[in-house]
Amino acid sequence: MGSDTAMSPKITVELLRQLRQAMRNTKYIAEPIQAYIVPSGDAHQSEYIAPCDCRREFICGFNGSAGTAIVTEKHAAMWTDGRYFLQASQQMDNNWTLMKMGLKETLSQEDWLISVLPENSTVGVDPWIIAADQWKNMSKALASAGHSLVAVQDNLIDAIWMDRPTRPSTQLLTLGLGFTGLTWQDKMTALRSKMAERKISWFVATALDEIAWLFNLRGSDIEYNPVFFAYAIVGMNTIRLFVDIKRLAVPTVREHLQLDTPSKVELSIQTAPYESVFTELQAVCASLGPKEKVWISDKASCALTQVIPKAHRSPIPYTPLCLAKAVKNATEIQGMKMAHIKDAVALCELFAWLEKEIPKGTVTEISAADKAEELRSQQKDFVGLSFPSISSVGPNGAIIHYRPLPETNRTLSLNEIYLLDSGAQYIDGTTDVTRTMHFGSPSAYEKETFTYVLKGHIAVSAAIFPNGTKGHLLDSFARQALWESGLDYLHGTGHGVGCFLNVHEGPCGISYKTFADEPLEAGMIVSDEPGYYEDGLFGIRIENVVLVVPAKPKYNYRNKGSLTFEPLTLVPIQAKMVNTDLLTQKERDWVNEYHRQCRETIGAELERQGRKEAMDWLIRETQPIA
Amino acid sequence: MGSDTAMSPKITVELLRQLRQAMRNTKYIAEPIQAYIVPSGDAHQSEYIAPCDCRREFICGFNGSAGTAIVTEKHAAMWTDGRYFLQASQQMDNNWTLMKMGLKETLSQEDWLISVLPENSTVGVDPWIIAADQWKNMSKALASAGHSLVAVQDNLIDAIWMDRPTRPSTQLLTLGLGFTGLTWQDKMTALRSKMAERKISWFVATALDEIAWLFNLRGSDIEYNPVFFAYAIVGMNTIRLFVDIKRLAVPTVREHLQLDTPSKVELSIQTAPYESVFTELQAVCASLGPKEKVWISDKASCALTQVIPKAHRSPIPYTPLCLAKAVKNATEIQGMKMAHIKDAVALCELFAWLEKEIPKGTVTEISAADKAEELRSQQKDFVGLSFPSISSVGPNGAIIHYRPLPETNRTLSLNEIYLLDSGAQYIDGTTDVTRTMHFGSPSAYEKETFTYVLKGHIAVSAAIFPNGTKGHLLDSFARQALWESGLDYLHGTGHGVGCFLNVHEGPCGISYKTFADEPLEAGMIVSDEPGYYEDGLFGIRIENVVLVVPAKPKYNYRNKGSLTFEPLTLVPIQAKMVNTDLLTQKERDWVNEYHRQCRETIGAELERQGRKEAMDWLIRETQPIA
């Protein structure tokens, strides 16, 4: 992500010594603490974070998108999930213990702390970067064992991080109706009607993508995510936006937000500095009537949550903005479709180019990813990548969230599988696509496992299910073929995708790990990406972004209606990797129909753009399979 | 269940008037309450309950196994799930509102109370029959809206229930090693080692089936469930059993429990009256050291849970007894297999008999169920039924937990589908099987939907999945074929089954509704019972009890191992109802292999028992399908 930390371990002896010193330093805390928790996120609980917020990476070296470090007087441990086991073990030195989440024998953070701490210990954490629900659980678990969790206002990592970057404040981009389908004023009105429905006086927006979506603004404060650092507090007649005030000096932004000439008083935005949210929220809470309620996400920071007195606080798992944002309107769907067509053009070009270049032995993981970025950047309204490209050859493919670095960079060849998981931000939409290819002759085992993954991909993509089904109920469909052969993969099957917003967004997804996901409904967009990983050999993943659409099966039980998925990603799936004997006729039909759509839709755009070589490649790769 | 309430509505005007009077009567409560909650269960949170505990049925008339009634000054509402919508609407008069759980528009009990109660209301409930976790949720939700939940010590239903039956106290049955595989002393030692592992000083057992399993005792206090009213408190050197003392006068019971000659001091059982558990637990808690912890299920009664001071209380979702009981040992598995063979013999006889008798027009739902019971009772070690037989013809089959009553009793015919869901308790095991049959010519639609249900049944039964997979991840497999045609069923797919114990037991199952189920492991036993219900026309369900066994697929990812199911139920599935064109070759092979096992195993037993007509029927019904 934000940093180019190598895959060789970071040496942390001295840093840990300094951190442990800070844990005893009365400059920061009244009494020494026996453990310090370093979560992954920023004050907005973002998944992707700005360099100034990469504190967990700074202390332990591991730079994956998910992980929590805990340092005690004697121990240092880091928890991450199956996507990152290999990467984390390579990036951390032996001062650190890797805690593999999801394995039965792995202690939870709470249980581990209880097992290593001396009696009556104090555990510290920065209240801005721990979510309120996590604070609550951790605090309860520690209390039950006689320990206590305390908020350390000065971040102890920042205290020892000498060259910590400053917080970014990039230029804001305003989005018109042609991209958003709804004005920010419409969105505000809809939000307030949800608030009125539940008798809520105030709503505190803390998630960066929700704020960007609400105001139809984008930024580039965080790499890959077109968001900007801000908070918002919305009342029935008040809108407060907390953001670096310098950013609001631009006339287009002032006009977009109607800062100088608000149309109505209740749509007049009061702006204030980013840092003032804490005191302003205190002021709002001080003026609350006895029955007034304030909505805040239960994933918001503990610091901000606790400003709201408990009697007035109404924490919610998913905010109305999160829910409204997830269901794309017609304009957004059209934009996402356009973005995916452009993205497919770039990938067809890339694969045609790779076929020619690989035999020369000059293409590496890095140069292939660079070429993909270059080709995407030629497309209209390209903004940047939507996440660091996972461009991996052979054994590197088994590192699920691998990112090529000079010292790990392998050359693409005719002998090893190539996995490319990449995507881009266009002003009209966000893409995320994985294709796994072999440019020589795949082995029978590689084809076999690829085909199981394909069967899982199709099982989800073609699934028909009742309206209101939660995505987690579809996860096993993606695994069925792998399970039958004793295989599996240690990650979820899909995540929500934003529209020119975060490539990972809630509240829906397809994963065995969540149960609190919101029901799927038409207009939601998720990824479908089963995989198979053979450590030390190869990785396989087939990922499309798919749109939830109404289905019309034969019957309609209790008039509930049915849903299915429509692929937005239209990039051929390499037939060479498929053992067609393992497919059912229905699955073969699905592949052929998918390739027909690729040829029709992407072919037309390649034709329009006059990209002949990619067109030839597309035609060849979309021949029907028998 | 316990009562023969008719399917015509119970008239509740007078009862509601009396209850509302009691809600204002200072004889029972210091201040009037504005609402009174009547949960379904007893003080042990049993699913099936004794007649003296059928309070919810008494007040509203609905006698299904799940449902909660709430009465306010003006309203009366009853919540139940999809299995019971039809039945509840028929059994309740129009003083009651049926709250259909699982439908989007249905308010939760909390939200409904908040919507109907005047400000600052008080809601009462008997703390013995509400579980601690439910109390907590309800109390929190009400508090957030300015209301309060209070414990009403005198049960207000009992106060107005003039002819309330007394609590049963039946004879206890002792089970030897040949049935249990483990002595109660072994089980106690295993329990204590789990307690030592987690540094727990005391364990309070409140679930009746856990207590029966622990002591290798059975009773018949509750119809269909071979349990007896008791509590147990286990310390590292102490065992206290709370039970009607009269029951312990029997020499075989005294000897079994070693009441007069304990082998070791820590295995000496102190007995005390059932009602004294409250004061005895108070005494135990009064003597606790500062760090001592007491385990109690979070589903135990609020009354008993709150005896344990919060600092000492360690609530758990599943007790170690619940987990140990779920994984059957070799003796129990052997017993369950034997029980299922005997049960299949009785059913083959029944179906052969039905074929002969139905054309005469003399067989009804009730007489068919009676015949099934009579045939089962001829089998060795038969104790009784494991639940009320669901014997339903045509439209009655769409009432998922239907029980035939004189006024609803239909005659079996050649024109309507017959669904029989029934099971028995044998000393060696518990059975639960559903077969759906047509004795004439099923329509194309009946065959089509039956075949989708069969495909779902097979998809679960034949599923191969990684060791440690939770059952809820398999639920969608059972629905896939129905979903593809726009159909579904509104109940879970499977439940745990006890061994000569409750036919429904935790902690595992196969349902979209639970997420907190424990991972499946070899030795667990669950049901596999998808269905399809067409209101007013017919019901279809195909249910086997299946054993979790290791599977040996081609590969073994991360040495995790794989599991699958082995059917214990061996009763032919009616081929006449199957549209074989809709089955895959794999599914046809599954059916033929299943029928081969039925013929081989049940055939041998029919031969041994000399039951010729059933044998002929079995041979004919197990012909391979093409």
Describe the protein.
Chains A, B: Homodimer. Chains A, B: It comes from Oncorhynchus kisutch (Coho salmon). The structure is a homodimer of 626-residue chains. The first copy, chain A, is α+β, with helices and mostly antiparallel strands and 626 residues long. Chain A is 33% helix and 19% strand. Chain A has 19 helices and 28 strands. In chain A, strands 4-3-2-1-5-6 form a six-stranded mixed sheet, with helices on both faces. A six-stranded mixed sheet of chain A has the order 12-11-10-8-13-14. Chain A has a four-stranded antiparallel sheet with strand order 21-28-27-24. In chain A, helix 16 runs antiparallel to helix 17 and helix 18 runs antiparallel to helix 19. The first copy, chain A, is globular and about 70 Å long. The relative contact order of chain A is 0.09.
Q: Percent helix among the residues of chain A?
A: 25-40%
Overall mean confidence score, pLDDT of chain A: 96
Radius of gyration of chain A, taken over Cα atoms and rounded to an integer in Å:
25 Å
Tally the beta strands of chain A: 28
Based on the structure, what is the oligomeric state of the protein chains? Answer: homodimer
GO molecular function (chains A, B): metal ion binding; metalloaminopeptidase activity
Pfam family, one (chains A, B): Creatinase_N_2
Protein name (chains A, B): Xaa-Pro aminopeptidase 1
Subcellular location (chains A, B): Cytoplasm
Task: Sum up the structure in keywords.
protease (chains A, B), 33% helix, six-stranded mixed sheet, alpha+beta, homodimer, disordered N terminus, globular, 626 residues, 19% strand, 19 helices, 28 strands
